[in-house]
User: Fold this.
Amino acid sequence: MVSQIKEDIKKAKKELREKIWRLMENRKIARFPLPLKDRIPNFEGSEEAAKKVKELELWKKAKVVVANPDYAQKKVREYALKDGKILVMASPKLKQGYLLINPENVKGKEEFASTIKGAFKYGKTVSLDKMPKPDLIVTGCVAVAKNGFRLGKGGGYGDREVGMLRKRFGYVPVITTIHEVQIVDKVPVEENDVKIDIAVTPTKTILFKENLI
Assistant:
């Protein structure tokens, strides 16, 4: 019975992912890299969403930002470096742990340093126990529910990263940048799934946890 419920949840998640990917491609909201399947969607207006992140007091106060490596959040990572923040980028699927990039070492090269190739060139590998305490976690999402639960691309790495960071450092706020069409009424939830605290779209900022702005 329990295993059947789990299978049903996984199936519902898969269907929702595919629905969002299809919707974004059909509406031509999707951007490189394409197709969206099995990816965190990059979207039209991602730069505007990143600019809105810069307006958050939470962002202004943050000195260390941990971010996902996906293309949709590239501009957020670039702004972190340009704003003088230490950027810790998760390597794809965490295969090579985390990469710490000191903004002092990439002045004038922030755009490239915020890419995966650039992070491997200018960053240094750091383990979780040697990482500075993050003030903010940036994650990518395929969808976000109106109650804050996120849906990733299916590998489980986003939720795992947040879980490991919070286990090590205590509560750290999580933000994401998404397109409005990625906001849905409900996301199927499993035991280790995490909530987003703030979702920023090209036109609005959505708070799921009070007292963060």
